Structure of BBS12 protein:
Amino acid sequence: LPMAFKDVNARRHIGLQQLSSLAFAGRTLLGPIKSCKFIVDESTNQSTLICSAVRLIESLDLTSAAGQLLNETIQAQNKEFKTGMSTLLFLTGAWSNAVLECLQQNVPVSAIVSMMSEGLNSCCERAQCLQISIHDVNKELCSNSVRPNAFKSKTCQAGRGGLLNTQSFLYFQKDISAPEEVIPINSCSRQEDDCNFNNCLVSPLASFGSIASLVKPAGDKSTSLISGIGVTASSCNKQKLTHSRYFNTLGKSRFSSQQGNFQGYLSGQSADPCECYGLGHLAMTLSHGNQTSMKLLQSIVAYQQERAECSGSSQFNIAEIVTCCLLGLPESYSCVSPGFVTLVSPEQATVVKYFEDKPLQILLMDGDLTEQYRHLGFNRPCNVRTVLEHPSLQEGRARDLWLSSMLDILITFEVDLVLVKGNVCENLMERCIANSILVIGCVTRDVLCAFGEVTSAQPVTYLTQLNASCVGSGAQVELWKACDGRAMDLGELVPVRIKVRGIPLLTAVLTTTVASKMQLIEDQFWTLVYRLHHALNDKKVFLGGGAVELLCLSHIQMLAEQPLQPANKGALKEFHNPWLAASATEYKSVVLQALASGWKQYLSVVMCNTAKAASEWEACTSVDDHLKKAADCGCPSAYILKEFRRGDLLRGGSGPFADHGEGLKVYDNVTAKTEAWRRALDLVLLVLQTDAEIITGPKRNQLLNSHVSSEFMFL
């Protein structure tokens, strides 16, 4: 009979086994150093390169119910946080295996659900002691940034490895109204004790009014100080800038003006002007080794902070950031470009050349520019019968009349540029090109809002609603030029830049010559952007580098080893369901050890993926050694915090930040990480309970007459 039950157990929990198998495919995606995978379509033999759990799950053929639930869970995490999906995927597999082991030991499903849920809740509460406020992070990073050993030339040496091309400089492009040149932001910020601004020039960017950039004089080989790192260190000197007309107010330096303008992003106002430039540092600590995206984000942060000084806007606004992916250029051409950079057809590019250096009348449309488009909530007349919903484009005078009338409206109001949120009718597009009207579709709502604010254009849903007050002015368009000043023609698509004086919009232009890497590079950039965004929203971060997971592992093992007596209410304070006390007493240690095994596997795989351990056995030994030291210390959180400050926690002298020494710490998002934990466990327990409630097969009568029949629901 016991063997029969084991067979039934194995058969009825196929969902957990499927979760485990799917999660196993994503083990190499865990940690800061990920191993990319090629996903091959067997029907077409086409392949794509993926390096995230989202793209992995999207690329797999998920036919099972468990696979669909896993996909929905990961998509929900991605939609809300854009980070934490690899952690979610791995822990789903690890805890699925842990639950299966509990079932093999005949642990009741009710005990597994209650104990694991309470155990994770206890971990989340315990991990709060490893949270650090953004205020304290910036204060610490600012103080570290002036240490001679914090970011020495080793930073540049680390950049010469596989993660960063030697010539990979970050360029922040100037406005086309000024002479065409670019401001290089050195990829490796080298700082010395005597930071000095005397060798730097300040160059105002004309189109933004409030932005000034630090550039090096010709022939100067010292490192540019525009990045968040350099500015932070140099700001400690409290020197005033008098070269720019924007910072010549008496008694007020560029750095002191930052105080009090943090718009609530930091926990309280800082008395130290250095702290106001900590976002560049914070971006680095959240990058987890992604150097290219980090440099792009640091330039964005530097620009937005400069702009916030004079305009009073928020220090970091994710709605003002867009991306444009250019295939065919080396990755060293990636840059941050003011305005809106997008791709158009060669035919549209001829219109762009015609419009260069001319002020344009601009129109914004918040729907599709097609004849069939109707806004959300549109109600058709009840007394009208539709004979033909979508007539052919080539047939009927009605369609030609619509095209002619739409074109007449645009010509009447002298519209030169149309930005459309949705799709554009191809026939209308061709007629507009013939009449020198540039129409660009699939523009995001944030871009439309940005142009609307600075051009006074009011979005319309249909062209028939257009009047003179809806048309904006002052827009300019040009062919986008790379960092060497050349306009790019990539064949089928041509990059163009649309800008308006004073627009806060920034485009991260992402380039690569490898088509399969394009999606990967864009995903990595947005992941870092949202990490910084969520860190500022949470106003706190977790200690990274495995610190939180190690504390959770130590805490769960401590709970599992504690004797738990039902009569002892004090011992049950970690678990809030008294009616489960008897079951918890009997199975507490087994279930909590199973939960702890997920954390241990997590840490071991991260160490292997980052080459901090040669094998999982060696990684487990290292983790056990830390657990023993933490237990001997008497206060695991204090031990982990001390090791984190020293930089010795699960580091082993390798990884993307090893050469930075103690000058750089790694941090993680609080809400995104804890939600990934909860979603992973919730998914596992949902599949567990679903599998446990549906029983089919010849063992029905045998189970019905057994002593465990109360655990099953018979259909």
